[in-house]
Design goal:
EC number: 3.4.24.-
Subunit structure: Homohexamer.
CATH superfamily of the largest domain: Peptidase M41
Strand order of the largest sheet: 6-8-9-10-7-11
Strand content: 5-15%
Largest sheet: 6 strands, mixed
CATH architecture of the largest domain: Up-down Bundle
Bound molecules: adenosine-5'-diphosphate, magnesium ion, zinc ion
Shape: elongated
Low-confidence stretches: 1-9, 143-154, 616-627
Family: In the C-terminal section; belongs to the peptidase M41 family. In the central section; belongs to the AAA ATPase family.
Helix content: 40-55%
Protein name: ATP-dependent zinc metalloprotease FtsH
Radius of gyration: 41 Å
GO molecular function: metallopeptidase activity
Structural class: alpha/beta
């Protein structure tokens, strides 16, 4: 994966030398020990004694010593070799002859070579082999060298080919545009240097999860055809204190050796969190961050190293990271719009067999707010459904069902509702739909269903905007609240009894009403005063209040006022159109699912009939005109 020859072989040699020294030491000690076991020094006089007592079977005479092999039958002494220093004893041979002991010299060279081989070379080879095996395994387990603490143990690896290009990233045209420059810089850094331009050191990709930040970083590397070092911020702070900083150092060192290249730090908020505000402090994280800051200042960008980082919590990042000369560029990777969603769907449907009826524009319309990861997931869900139904192509129905699976979970046909429950659910859902149809500033109803879903909904009403919206007016928000409360209102006007089915509606309605008061300045009472701010914009974070406790209780009052008004309005609308409510609900119970056009045609038929009876019915306005 990693081709820097000089860098690599240098280290290898160092390790080989370490291994060799280690092995030599082990062998030396072992040899000494073994020799100590096998041979024993005795005095010359004892040796002579032994000869006289006929205890010796053989003597080998070498230059400086005599090696004595005893006759001993004792278990303990068997195989033992005795030796004594050679004393110039002219009678030695005579004594041996007399005792009928065999004697001779030692075949010098031969034993020396063999001994050397057996005692030194062979063990050396074996130990080297075992070490290799053992360390190899450990290395695999820990991701990198055990012999190299302080070196990087995180999975930093340079990919030479990420296999991702800009064309794989759809719906992020602005983001791509600002990254093209970086690609160009990596290609022709010389041109920039010549003209004296200061080169960008880093860019921060910011946006909600799943919008393609990681993908974009890879695409930059793919386009620039340079190595891509990728590491996640959390990997810097996982093991030992001090390791994080060492890793940062090592990362930058490697990067500079491989320049031009891209270093990508994903989820940088894990190390880049603001240092102020936490008194106890996380020393490890702080050290790592400081090291990162120092390295970013230190390296020479004209060599062609670009640092990319991604986060979905830019507001928690330390200000020092965003200073010029560090991550001075911010690339927003936001949720895709209608066109963007369609393009993303096109990218992901490429490898999938589809039938001619597939209309991706329609699916894109049905998925406002979905990010790239959701859409990729939807295509896959659709393909799975096609296989399940023994078809060889994905059709529009598969895709539509996949959208709903992502929104509401899988259908749960085995959940049997009692007839009473079914009634309650049907009226509830038609309540939402009818209020939506009767009010002016609402999105058209796309689908009403009372087929239960795995994510808890017993039924739901899907509204779809006709076009992508970037602004909401106060009227629209008020009407939205009415629609949310329409479910419960229908239960009330029809059964005069209420159920737990409105919990989610209540939560959403309250949230919308509260934001109107605290964030959007839509009440007379507070005028344009900002009372809350949203903390992490890209993670649907909770708002934080910036007001006194007294004001907070007035906020509650104002919110309640909006809710109560809307509830009253919904109830009145439904009461005035009771016949329609009952008629549509019956149809829904019968068919379980009504599509938007069926729903609207029921209303239209009813309206025509009613129009004939009395021409002064003004209740049905709004969408009826559009359809
Ligand atoms: P992030 O890093 O922003 O959380 P990722 O880059 O990991 O998101 O995206 C996850 C997956 O979603 C990608 O691998 C890709 O399949 C799909 N995806 C996300 N955004 C896009 C996009 N703009 N175009 C195409 N595919 C996308
Ligand atoms: Mg990511
Ligand atoms: Zn509801």
């Amino acid at each position: 994966m990693f081709n820097n020859k000089k860098f690599n072989s240098n280290k290898k040699w160092r390790y080989l030398i370490y291994y060799a020294l280690l092995a030599a030491m082990i062998i030396f000690v072992a040899n000494e020990y073994m020799n100590g076991l096998k041979s024993q020094h005795i005095k010359y006089s004892d040796f002579i004694n032994d000869i006289n007592q006929n205890k010796i079977s053989e003597v080998q005479i070498s230059k400086d010593k005599l090696i004595i092999i005893p006759k001993s039958q004792d278990e303990a002494d068997r195989g033992k070799v005795l030796y004594t220093e050679r004393i110039t004893d002219p009678d030695l041979i005579k004594k041996l002859d007399n005792a009928k002991i065999q004697y001779g010299g030692i075949p010098q060279e031969n034993t020396a070579i063999r001994g050397f081989f057996i005692n030194w070379v062979l063990p050396f080879i074996i130990i080297a082999f075992l070490l290799q095996l053992f360390l190899g395994k450990l290395n695999k387990k820990m991701g990198s060298g055990v012999m190299s603490f302080g070196k990087n143990t995180a999975k930093i690896y340079a990919e030479n080919e990420t296999g991702v290009n800009f064309k794989d990233v759809a719906g992020q045209e602005e983001a791509k545009e600002s990254l093209v420059e970086i690609v160009d810089f990596l290609h022709n850094s010389q041109r920039y240097v010549e003209i004296g331009a200061r080169l960008p050191k880093g860019a921060l990709l910011v946006g909600p999860p799943g919008t393609g930040k990681t993908l974009l970083a890879k695409a930059v590397a793919g386009e620039a055809k340079v190595p891509f070092f990728s590491i996640s911020g959390s990997a810097f702070v996982e093991m030992f204190v001090g390791m994080g900083a060492a890793r940062v150092r090592d990362l930058f060192q490697q990067a500079q050796e491989k320049a031009p290249c891209i270093v990508f730090i994903d989820e940088i908020d894990a190390i880049g969190k603001s240092r102020e505000g936490n008194i106890s402090g996380n020393d490890e994280r702080e050290q790592t961050l400081n090291q990162l800051l120092a390295e970013m200042d230190g390296f020479d960008s004209s060599k062609g190293v670009v640092i990319l980082a991604a986060t979905n919590r830019p507001e928690v990042l330390d200000k020092a990271l965003l200073r010029p000369g560090r991550f001075d560029r911010r690339v927003i990777v936001d949720r895709p719009d209608l066109k963007g969603r369609e393009d993303i769907l096109k990218v992901h449907i490429k490898g999938v067999k589809v039938s001619p009826d597939v209309d991706l524009n329609n699916i894109a319309k049905a998925t406002p707010g979905a990010v790239g990861a959701d859409l990729a997931n939807m295509i896959n869900e659709a393909a799975l459904r096609a296989v399940k139904n023994h078809r060889s192509q994905v059709n529009q129905e598969d895709l539509e069902e996949a959208v709903e699976v992502i929104i509401a979970g899988k259908e749960k046909k085995d959940r049997i509702l009692s007839p009473e429950e079914k009634q309650q659910v049907a009226f509830h859902e038609v309540g939402h739909a009818l209020v939506a149809a009767l009010l002016k500033h609402t999105d058209p109803v796309h689908k009403i269903t009372i087929v239960p879903r795995t994510m808890g909904a017993l039924g739901y009403t899907m509204q779809l905007p006709e076009e992508e919206k970037y602004l909401n007016t106060k009227e629209e928000m008020m009407d939205q609240i009415c629609v949310m409360l329409g479910g419960r209102s229908a239960e009330e006007v029809r059964f005069n009894s209420i159920s737990t089915g409105a919990a989610n509606d209540i939560e959403r309605a309250t949230q919308t009403a509260r934001r109107m008061v605290t964030i959007y300045g839509m009440t007379d009472r507070f005028d344009m005063m900002g009372l809350e701010s949203i903390q992490n914009k890209y993670l649907n974070g909770r708002p934080v209040q910036n007001c006194s406790i007294e004001t907070a209780s007035i906020i509650d009052e104002e919110t309640l006022k909006i809710i109560k008004e809307s509830h009253k309005k919904s109830r009145k609308l439904l009461k005035d159109n009771m016949d329609l409510l009952i008629g549509i609900s019956k149809k829904l119970i019968e068919k379980e699912t009504l599509m938007g056009d069926e729903f609207m045609s029921i209303i239209r038929d009813y309206n025509e009939k009613k129009g004939k009876e009395s021409s002064d019915n003004k209740a049905l306005t709004s969408h009826l005109e559009d359809v």
